[in-house]
Design brief:
Distance between the termini of chain B: 29 Å
Low-confidence stretches of chain A: 62-84, 145-170, 244-254, 302-308, 332-348, 422-426, 441-445, 524-579
Shape of chain B: elongated
Number of strands of chain A: 17
Organism (chain B): Pleodorina starrii
Largest interface: A-B, 91 and 71 residues
Structural class of chain B: alpha+beta
GO biological process, one term (chain B): proteolysis
Low-confidence stretches of chain B: 106-118, 276-289
Strand order of the largest sheet of chain A: 1-3-2-6-7-8-9
Mean pLDDT of chain B: 85
Keywords (chain B): Hydrolase, Protease, Thiol protease, Ubl conjugation pathway
Oligomer: heterodimer
GO molecular function (chain B): deUFMylase activity
Distance between the termini of chain A: 64 Å
Helix content of chain A: 25-40%
Number of helices of chain A: 14
Number of strands of chain B: 18
Largest sheet of chain B: 8 strands, mixed
Radius of gyration of chain B: 29 Å
Shape of chain A: globular
Number of helices of chain B: 10
Strand content of chain A: 15-25%
Protein name (chain B): Ufm1-specific protease 2
C-alpha cells in the first residue's frame, strides 16, 4: 500500500509563493502528525534559519538558473562543483540542532515529519545522499521513544477498532523528504525508513531506500482540536548522604551534582505516576478509547469562553487523575518486575537510608495535544499523556543545561576575581550541581534551595490554528520566548495577536522556609508562609548571577502573581542584592 | 436457629420485629452482590530523626498515607474485564448509577478444600485522585531542597534514618447490586482506611521494625464470608514466615472458632481471587509428572450394605500409584506410593508446601538418618511402615501411631479403632507389614453385627489416570474381609502380620 501525505491546503499557496519569489535555496522542517495507517498529515513548515550569517544550505555553480545563485556566491570556498553539476553545502550540524530544538518545542500530537528542500533538481540529486544521512540522524530526536510509544498505543486502540493488519505493516518508522524543484516547479515527496536506535541510524540510510509518497493538498488544520489538562505534582524524596548516593553513577562531580540527580529521580517517579493516570472528560466520565474525539468530548470549552485567546481552535479541557502518591507504581511487566526488585528492596529496607534532607517537587504543569476531531480517543489521550511526559523531561533537560551554563559562567567570573576575593570561588556553582552539604552550610544549617523549573508558554502558529511551545527559565521575561520564536521558528507577530500565551505561571508560593522536620505535621497556617522578598519583574539574569552563593529562587509575591521575585535563601541574607 | 428477631435501639427500647429470611448459602447470597476489590501497594516511609520517638515517627508516616487515601474526591477506576470492551468506568463519591452496571469478570475461585465455590463476581478497582488537588494551577513547578532540622545535641550534620516498606493492602467490599455507585465508592474507601489502620496495628507489634505487610483473603469452612488477614513479613521465605506466625494464627483460630489443629489461615490457604479458573494449587506436586494426578478417586463409590457408620478420610489427597512420573517402580514401589499419597494429603491440607518426595528423596532421607546404608539410595528395595514413619517425621515433622495386628484374620476386630482414627484425625492410613502395601481411606463398621468394610486405595495400579477404569478395576474400592485385592489374591492374608501406620495431624494451625 502506498503511503500518502495530506498537506494542509495553505501549504500549497506557500509553496507557490516560494516558487514565484525564486529566492535562495531553502531547507526546513516538515511539521505534522503520523496518522494511523500509511498516512501522514502535514500542517506546516519551519525554515531552518541562518545562524551567524551561515546559511544552512548553499548551492554553488552548476546549472544556470538564478535560483540560489546570489546566495551561494556570497560565500567563498564552497565545495567545488563537479563537472557541470551543482555543488551543495549543508550545515548538517545546525540543521540537526535546529530540528532537535524545534522537536522540543512541539506540543503533543505534533512531530517533525522530516525535511523539505527548495533547490534546483541538479542540486537535489547531488545533496540527496547527504540529506538521507541527515534524516537518519534526526530520527532519534524526532521519533522519540515516547513518540513512537504513543503511536503504538494509538495504533493498538485503532486496531481494537478492526484494522489490525493495516497497522502492522507500518511498524517501521519513517521520515519524509520533500523536494520542491525551483526550476521545474515539481514537488516530490519521499519516505525514508529510519531507525530510532542511534547505533544503526546512519548505516541504513541511502538514497535507494527512498520511497515515493503521494502528496495531496486538502484542508487539514480545520479538523484539529486542542486537548488540555493540568497536572499537579507534589512529590518528596529523602536525600541520602553523599556516601549513600550509590557512588555517583554519572561520574560527573561525584556527590557534587547530587541535587540534580535528586531532581531527576523525582521527575522519573512522577513520570511513572503520569503513565498510570487517566483522563476524564468534562462530564466526569472516562471516554471510551475507540470513540471519536469530537463526539466523545462534547462541549468544547475554548472557542466560546475565549480562554484560548489567540488560538482559534476548539479546546477541550480534560481532568487528569493519577494514583495517590503513597502507592507504589504497578510494575508494567508482571513477573520479572515484581520478583527481583522486591526482594532487593527488602534488604535495603532493613538497613534504612540515612538522609540529610528532603527534596521536593511541587507545582503544576499543563499538558497540550493537537488531535484530529475524528481520531480515536485512545490515541488522542495517549498523545496528551506523552506530552506531559515529554514536557516534564524537557524542563528537566533545560534546567540542567542552564545549571551547567550558569556554573561555568560563575566559575569564570570567580577566577577573574580570585585576586581580590578568592573565598567565594569555591561555592560558585548552581545549586542543582552542588551537594546537599554545601547548601546546608556550616553557616546557618537551615539553607536549602528553591529552584523553579522552566514554565511552558504557547506560541500561536499558522494564524492560531496551531501552537508551538517554548520554555521560560526562572526570571526570564516572555519577550525572551518571543525573541526565540522569531529567531528559531520565524514566527512573526500577526497584527493584534499575542506572540506568547502564558498559561503556566511562576510557582505560586515556595514551600515553607526552614529546615525539614520530617515528623512535624504541618498545620494549615504554614502553607504559603514563605515570605516574599524583594520583588521585581526585572529579575534579570545578571542580577541572579551576581548573587554570590547562587541561592537563586523565585517567589511570587502573594498579591502579584505574575511578578517574579528573587529570594536569597535564609542561610545567606547578605546575598540579597539590590536590584 | 433463631425464630424471631427484634430491633433494639441504642437507648435500650425494643423496636419493631424484623422479618428474618434464611440465606440459602454464601454463594447464593453472593449472587445478589458484587465484590469490589482494591489492591494497594502502599509505600510507607518512616523517618526517624533522633528527636522524635520511633512510634511517633511511625504514626506520622501512617498519617501521611491516611491523609492521601481519605482525600475528598478519591475516585476508583473500574477495570473492564478481559472480555469487556466497555470503557473504563470511574467510581466517584458523587457517581450515579447502580453497582449492577459495573463491568467485571465472573472469576472462578480455585476449588479449594474449603469449597469456596465458583463464579465469584469480582470488580477490580484502583484509586485515583485529581492531581490538581496536590498543587493548584497555574503555579509552575518548583524544586526545593531542605536540609534536615538539627536535633538538639547532634553532630555538625543532622541525619535521619528513612525506613521504607510496602504494605500490600487488598480490600474487599461486598456491595449489593442495587446499591448506588457513590455509596459503593464510599464503602470501598472506608474499607481501605480500616485496612491501613489495621496495618498500623500490625506494625506496632513489631518492636519498632518497619516490615512489609501483606493482606490475604481466606474463606475457611464454616465462616460465611471472606476474611482478610494482614501478616507481617518477618522472614523472606513464606513457609518459614508462616511458621513464625503460628501464635498469631492460633489466636485467630480461637477468636473465630476454627479448629485448633487445622491450618486454615496460612498464607498457602489464601484465595487467589485473580486466578483464572483451574489454577492448580501448589504447582502440581513434586514429581514433575506430565499428567496431573487424580484427586479423591473414592468419591462416588457406594458403601457396601452392611449398615453401621462410615468414617472417611477428611480432605483431599492425590492418588499415587506405580509408574507415575515416568518412573518404573512396578513390583517394589507400593509403599513409596502409599507414602506419596499421604504426603499429598498433608500438602493439600496446607500443613506443608514441600513437594511430594520422589523415591530417591525418600531413600536419601533414610540413608541420612542412618536407617539404611548409603547403597540403599537408587536401589529397588522395599520399605515398610516403620520407614514411612521415619520419613514423615523427618520430612514433614509429622508423628504417627501404629496399630499392630498379628494375624490378618484379626483385622476386622480393630475396625472400631481405625474408624476412630478417621473420625478424629482423618489422615490416610498406610497398611504395611509382611506383605503388600495399601492405603486405607475409610472404614465402615456395624456395631451390632460386628461387620466391617475397608476403603482400600491400591498403589499397584499401572494404568493411566482414568477414573472410570480405576474404579471399575477396584483399584479404589470397599473391601470386606475375604475379598481379593484388585491384582488378585487375598487382600488380607489370614496369618500374616500387619502394621497400620496412622499419621497424626500436627497440632498446629
Amino acid at each position: 500500500m502506498a503511503r500518502t501525505c495530506q498537506a494542509d491546503d495553505a501549504l500549497e499557496k506557500q509553496f507557490e509563493a516560494l516558487l514565484k519569489q525564486q529566492a535562495g535555496p531553502e531547507v526546513g522542517l516538515l511539521v505534522g502528525k503520523h496518522a494511523t495507517g500509511a498516512k501522514a498529515l502535514l500542517y506546516g513548515t519551519i525554515k531552518t534559519p541562518s545562524q551567524e550569517q551561515l546559511e544552512p544550505i548553499v548551492v554553488a555553480g552548476g546549472a544556470g538558473p538564478p535560483a540560489g545563485g546570489q546566495a551561494a556566491r556570497r560565500r567563498a570556498g564552497g565545495p567545488a562543483a563537479g563537472g557541470g553539476g551543482a555543488a551543495v553545502s549543508l550545515e548538517v550540524e545546525w540543521i540537526t540542532e535546529h530540528a532537535r530544538q524545534v522537536a522540543r518545542m512541539l506540543p503533543g500530537g505534533l512531530s517533525v515529519l522530516g525535511l523539505y528542500v527548495f533547490c534546483p533538481e541538479a542540486a537535489y540529486s547531488v545533496a540527496a545522499p547527504q540529506l538521507c544521512a541527515l534524516l537518519a540522524g534526526l530520527a532519534a530526536a524526532c521519533l522519540s521513544p515516547t513518540g513512537t510509544a504513543t503511536t503504538a498505543a494509538g495504533d493498538a486502540a485503532a486496531a481494537a477498532g478492526g484494522d489490525a493488519q493495516q497497522q502492522q505493516q507500518h511498524q517501521q518508522p519513517y521520515l519524509l523528504l520533500l523536494h520542491i524543484d525551483s526550476t521545474s516547479r515539481k514537488q516530490a515527496l519521499r519516505a525514508l525508513p529510519v531507525s530510532t536506535s542511534v547505533s544503526t541510524a546512519s548505516a541504513s540510510a541511502s538514497v535507494s531506500s527512498l520511497r515515493p509518497v503521494e502528496l495531496k493538498f486538502a484542508p487539514t488544520l480545520g479538523s484539529l482540536v486542542l486537548l488540555r489538562c493540568w497536572h499537579g505534582v507534589d512529590l518528596a524524596l529523602p536525600v541520602p548522604t553523599a556516601g549513600a548516593a550509590g557512588g555517583g553513577g554519572g561520574g560527573e562531580g561525584g556527590s557534587g551534582a547530587q541535587l540534580r540527580r535528586q531532581l531527576a529521580a523525582l521527575v522519573a517517579a512522577e513520570s511513572e505516576r503520569i503513565r498510570c493516570g487517566v483522563f476524564v472528560a468534562a462530564g466526569g466520565s472516562v471516554p471510551a478509547e475507540s470513540a471519536q474525539v469530537g463526539e466523545a468530548l462534547s462541549c468544547p470549552s475554548g472557542s466560546g469562553s475565549g480562554s484560548s485567546g489567540p488560538l482559534h481552535v476548539p479546546t477541550f479541557d480534560l481532568t487528569f487523575l493519577a494514583p495517590p502518591r503513597c502507592l507504589e507504581p504497578q510494575p508494567h511487566t508482571s513477573a520479572e518486575a515484581a520478583g527481583a526488585p522486591a526482594s532487593q528492596s527488602q534488604t535495603q529496607q532493613a538497613a534504612g537510608l540515612v538522609a540529610v534532607g528532603q527534596a521536593r517537587l511541587r507545582g503544576c504543569l499543563q499538558g497540550l495535544a493537537f488531535v484530529g476531531k475524528r481520531e480515536a480517543v485512545g490515541r488522542a489521550v495517549a498523545d496528551l499523556k506523552a506530552d506531559l511526559l515529554a514536557s516534564l523531561s524537557a524542563r528537566l533537560d533545560l534546567l540542567v543545561e542552564e545549571a551547567a551554563r550558569v556554573s561555568e559562567q560563575l566559575q569564570e567570573e570567580g577566577q577573574q576575581q580570585e585576586g581580590q576575593q578568592g573565598a567565594t570561588a569555591a561555592a560558585a556553582v548552581h545549586p542543582l550541581l552542588s551537594a546537599p552539604t554545601q547548601l546546608g552550610g556550616a553557616a546557618g544549617r537551615c539553607g536549602g534551595c528553591d529552584v523553579a523549573l522552566p514554565r511552558r508558554v504557547l506560541l500561536p502558529w499558522l494564524g492560531g490554528g496551531l501552537a508551538l511551545c517554548d520554555y521560560l527559565l526562572e526570571g526570564e521575561p516572555s519577550e525572551a520566548a518571543a525573541e526565540r520564536a522569531r529567531e528559531l521558528l520565524a514566527l512573526q507577530a500577526e497584527k493584534g495577536c499575542q506572540v506568547v500565551v502564558e498559561h503556566e505561571m511562576p510557582p505560586a508560593a515556595a514551600a515553607a522556609a526552614g529546615p525539614w522536620q520530617p515528623n512535624v505535621v504541618a498545620g494549615e497556617g504554614l502553607q504559603g508562609g514563605g515570605k516574599a522578598a524583594g520583588a521585581s519583574s526585572a529579575a534579570s539574569l545578571s542580577s541572579r548571577l551576581s548573587c554570590g552563593v547562587t541561592m537563586a529562587a523565585s517567589l511570587a509575591v502573594a498579591a502579584v502573581a505574575s511578578a517574579v521575585g528573587l529570594l536569597s535563601l535564609l542561610g545567606q541574607p547578605a546575598g540579597q542584592q539590590p536590584q | 436457629m433463631v425464630d424471631c428477631a427484634v430491633r433494639v435501639h441504642t437507648d435500650g427500647t425494643v423496636g419493631h420485629q424484623l422479618d428474618l429470611k434464611k440465606t440459602p448459602s454464601f454463594n447464593e447470597w453472593l449472587k445478589g452482590h458484587r465484590i469490589l476489590r482494591c489492591e494497594l501497594p502502599v509505600k510507607l516511609e518512616v523517618v526517624e530523626d533522633g528527636s522524635t520517638p520511633a512510634d511517633v515517627a511511625r504514626q506520622v508516616a501512617f498519617g501521611h498515607v491516611l491523609r492521601q487515601l481519605q482525600a475528598p474526591g478519591l475516585a476508583f477506576l473500574v477495570h473492564p474485564g478481559p472480555s469487556g470492551r466497555a470503557a473504563p468506568l470511574l467510581l466517584r463519591p458523587e457517581a450515579d448509577g447502580l453497582v449492577d452496571s459495573l463491568p467485571g469478570t465472573a472469576t472462578t475461585a480455585p476449588t479449594s478444600a474449603s469449597g469456596s465455590g465458583s463464579g465469584i463476581d469480582v470488580v477490580r478497582c484502583s484509586p485515583l485522585v485529581d492531581t490538581t488537588q496536590l498543587a493548584s494551577p497555574p503555579g509552575g513547578l518548583l524544586f526545593t531542597y531542605r536540609p534536615l532540622a538539627a536535633a538538639p545535641g547532634s553532630g555538625p550534620t543532622a541525619t535521619a534514618t528513612c525506613r521504607s516498606t510496602t504494605l500490600r493492602l487488598d480490600a474487599l467490599c461486598y456491595v449489593r447490586r442495587d446499591c448506588r455507585l457513590g455509596a459503593a465508592a464510599g464503602a470501598l474507601s472506608r474499607g481501605i482506611v480500616r485496612q491501613v489502620q489495621a496495618a498500623q496495628r500490625v506494625l506496632e507489634k513489631q518492636d519498632g521494625k518497619v516490615l512489609p505487610v501483606r493482606a490475604h483473603h481466606f474463606l475457611p469452612p464454616g465462616v460465611g464470608h471472606h476474611l482478610t488477614v494482614l501478616y507481617p513479613a518477618l522472614l523472606d521465605d513464606p513457609e518459614r514466615n508462616d511458621d513464625r506466625l503460628v501464635a498469631a494464627r492460633q489466636r485467630l483460630h480461637a477468636l473465630l472458632g476454627l479448629p485448633p489443629n487445622r491450618p486454615l489461615l496460612r498464607s498457602a490457604n489464601a484465595l487467589d481471587l485473580a486466578a483464572a479458573a483451574g489454577g492448580e494449587e501448589g504447582g502440581g506436586g513434586g514429581g514433575g509428572g506430565a499428567v496431573a494426578r487424580l484427586r479423591d478417586v473414592h468419591v462416588g463409590l457406594a458403601a457396601p450394605g452392611i449398615g453401621g457408620t462410615v468414617a472417611l478420610i477428611q480432605g483431599s489427597y492425590e492418588y499415587c500409584h506405580y509408574l507415575q512420573d515416568r518412573f518404573n517402580d512396578s513390583g517394589w514401589g507400593c509403599a513409596y506410593r502409599s507414602l506419596q499419597t499421604i504426603c499429598s494429603w498433608f500438602r493439600l491440607q496446607k500443613y506443608t508446601s514441600k513437594p511430594i518426595p520422589s523415591h530417591k528423596t525418600i531413600q536419601q532421607v533414610l540413608a541420612r538418618l542412618g536407617d539404611k546404608p548409603p547403597s540403599f539410595v537408587g536401589s529397588s528395595n522395599w520399605i515398610g511402615a516403620i520407614e514411612l514413619s521415619y520419613i514423615l517425621d523427618d520430612y514433614l515433622g509429622v508423628t504417627s501411631k501404629f496399630l499392630t495386628v498379628n494375624r490378618g484374620a484379626d483385622i476386622p476386630s480393630h475396625a472400631r479403632e481405625l474408624a476412630a482414627h478417621f473420625a478424629t484425625v482423618g489422615s490416610p492410613v498406610m497398611i504395611g507389614g509382611g506383605v503388600l502395601a495399601y492405603t486405607l481411606l475409610g472404614v465402615q463398621f456395624n456395631e451390632l453385627t460386628g461387620e466391617a468394610a475397608f476403603l482400600i486405595l491400591d498403589p499397584h495400579y499401572t494404568g493411566g489416570e482414568d477414573l472410570k477404569r480405576i474404579q471399575q478395576g477396584t483399584w479404589i474400592g470397599w473391601k470386606r474381609p475375604g475379598d481379593n485385592a484388585a491384582a488378585g489374591g487375598p487382600l488380607f492374608v489370614e496369618d500374616a502380620f500387619y502394621n497400620f501406620l496412622l499419621p497424626q495431624r500436627p497440632n498446629t494451625v
